[in-house]
Amino acid sequence: MVAVGMFEGCPGRMTDECPVSGAEIISADSRQVYRGMDIGTGKDLDEYGEIPYHLIDIADAGEQYNVFRYVEDFKKVYADIRSRRSVPILCGGTGMYINAVTAGYDFSSNTPLSASRAPISIDGLPRSPYFIGTLVSREVRNARIDARLDVRLKEGMVDEIRGLMERGVPVDVLLGYGLEYRFVTQYIIGELSYDQMRDKLAIAIHQFAKRQMTWFRGMERSGVKIHWTHV
Questions:
Q1: pTM for this structure?
Q2: Are residues 127 and 189 in the same domain?
Q3: 19 and 90 share a domain?
Q4: Is residue 156 domain-shared with residue 68, that is, in the same domain?
């Protein structure tokens, strides 16, 4: 995961000339935008304490939400936070969303995502982001993923996803959300046993975490400085 401190006009530090009133989190998670998808996306909102957060629970499950909408929503939230002299902290693991709002890539609705992504200037986006990433060994990371998955299953992740189906979210949409939603849905509709679902899901999350790190390393190769910290 990467957190991005956005010190607009404050080069990497807070000074008397750049007072702030606190920090607020802006989520960079493509699935936590959806209401009712709590355990499956690992929102863990209680861990935020009194820290304000944004761009979580802003769309209905099944509703179309993409990087283009995210950029527009981000710009509104970012401007509001800065108007109150607070520090926006962009935090999450959806690399495409992070790139879109920190590098100013043009993800216009009529341009395929596979097209050239030349940096452009977009009004309202931060210009001096400070990137912090978390590092952990593969063995420890996978062990934590497995333990957290088992906790979420015990907390009712299957029932949560079954409830989405009962409220009318189509099966193909749930499958398209990937990871938890794909494999748990396959279990619910009888394509996988419980043990198969759990094991396949654990492996898929391991692979996803590896792809996340590959994305962030790619950002570094493109010139982004990420300050890594071991956790």
A1: 0.84
A2: no
A3: yes
A4: no
